[in-house]
Design a protein that fits this description.
13 helices, alpha+beta, 17 strands, seven-stranded antiparallel beta sheet
């Protein structure tokens, strides 16, 4: 018997004293609630629509609810309220360099979390049947949420304005901007992938996929900007390390290659998050990256920035050192195994206690335990290289798994033996 999606209708219970806020259209807060999209997400028992549309609250920057600590100019809500009559899947508040909130991103549906990660995708007949039913469920949710939000915005704000973002065919998307008082409410519907709203003050709304402070720089100024982010011999180990790379958590999605790209491209100046990049790569919603346009996406993202991508089938430690010393992060796709990933994590923990600890030169026995780079179809992962230690033959890398996955270390020999695709970025 086919499973059915259970819709739970939740009525917001205000657990705080509302701030004095001007009236907003009732349609924004009245009506039947959509959700939950991800039932496991905890709830914050309040409707924050009014607060998210209050200029005074934005000025103060103190929104109600439980939020994670600020990391790389963004905070995540850790329990979901009701916003525009619906229970979102995630809410992220982004700040500018002055520390003021510049955008609130509200995601109601995301294919990455809806389908999750499934190694090798739909390999069996049973997998394909389950996947087909789940895609039907997703299409139903996508249509319901899209219509509900569009109807409410049309009624509350009047007709929206279509906005085209992105120069390349792969990244170009058509969004709908609605105006409410001093705010722009941007509806982003990405077919077969996601539905989200982006709230921002109208005088600061983004008009390009490239950050304004990067777009205005010439090549020499851009290189100087990246070089300034490098610290050399900042500790007793003598590491060379790039600072300022954001963290985008992959979670249970199959988007490791997307999240590392988002981390690198954000550092370089691109205004696109992992969800938007995944949609552009045309993932097939099978729980796997198979069949997506991910290689073309890497090139498109950096063409948008006016940069080039050089791809190599092998890791070259000297070449990586030159790029990293110039403040240019490198992305590697590498073969992985659970024992080796556990070993890398363990060394980070040991290093916190013994800062001068070194990775030993690998023996033949060690090398035999490494996953084979040439073994197609075996487990693989994408990491971003952020530094190195030439004297100790160590490469410093970060995985898109959260702050605890930063600044892990691997001997250069192991990276050379396991990396099968390496992306270098050039101005």
């Amino acid at each position: 018997m086919k499973s059915r999606i259970a819709f739970t209708f939740i009525f917001a219970a205000f657990t705080f004293i509302p701030r004095p806020i001007s009236a907003i259209p009732n349609v924004f807060i009245n009506g039947q609630l959509i959700g939950p999209i991800v039932p496991a997400h905890p709830r914050f028992g309040a409707d924050l629509t009014k607060e998210f549309l209050a200029a005074g609250v934005w000025e103060e920057g103190e929104f109600s609810g439980p939020w994670s600590d600020l990391k790389n100019d963004s905070r995540h809500m850790t329990a979901m309220p009701v916003v525009f009559g619906a229970v979102p899947e995630s809410i992220v508040a982004h700040q500018n360099q002055s520390g003021k909130t510049q955008e609130i991103e509200i995601t109601y549906l995301n294919a990455g979390t809806f389908f999750g990660y499934k190694f090798e995708g739909e390999k069996t007949h049973s997998d394909r049947e389950i996947g087909s039913e789940k895609r039907s469920q997703f299409a139903h949710q996508f249509g319901l949420i899209s219509k509900n939000l569009r109807d409410r915005l049309d009624t509350g704000c009047g007709p929206g304005e279509q906005v085209v973002m992105g120069r390349s065919d792969l990244l170009r998307s058509v969004l709908t901007d609605y105006q409410y008082e001093n705010f722009t409410i941007r509806l982003a519907r990405r077919d077969n992938h996601s539905v989200a709203l982006h709230l921002m003050p109208t005088d600061a709304r983004t008009k390009s996929l490239v950050a304004a402070d990067f777009e205005s720089l010439d090549k020499k100024e851009r290189q100087a900007r990246f070089s300034e982010r490098v610290t050399t011999e900042a500790n007793s180990r003598g590491d060379t390390q790039i600072n300022g790379i954001p963290m985008f958590k992959q979670g249970t999605t199959p988007f490791c290659g997307i999240h590392t790209l988002a981390m690198a491209s954000d550092y370089y100046g691109l205004n696109l998050g992992p969800d938007e990049l995944a949609a552009a790569a045309d993932f097939k919603n099978t729980g796997s990256a198979r069949g997506s346009n991910i290689l073309e996406l890497y090139h498109a993202a950096f063409e948008e920035l006016g940069m080039r991508v050089k791809v190599s089938s092998r890791f070259d430690f000297e070449r990586a050192q030159k790029a990293l010393a110039a403040g240019m992060p490198v992305i590697v796709w590498r073969r992985v195994s659970i024992p080796r990933e556990e070993a890398h994590a363990k060394f980070v923990s040991q290093l916190a206690v013994l800062p001068n600890l070194s990775l030993p030169k690998p023996t033949r026995s060690d090398q035999e335990k490494w996953p084979e780079r040439s073994k197609k179809g075996s487990p693989s992962h994408a990491s971003i290289l952020t530094g190195f230690n030439a004297e100790r033959d160590e490469i410093i890398f970060t995985d898109p798994w959260g702050e605890s996955a930063r600044n892990k270390r691997m001997r250069s020999e192991e990276m050379e033996a396991t990396a099968y695709t390496v992306f270098y970025f050039e101005l």
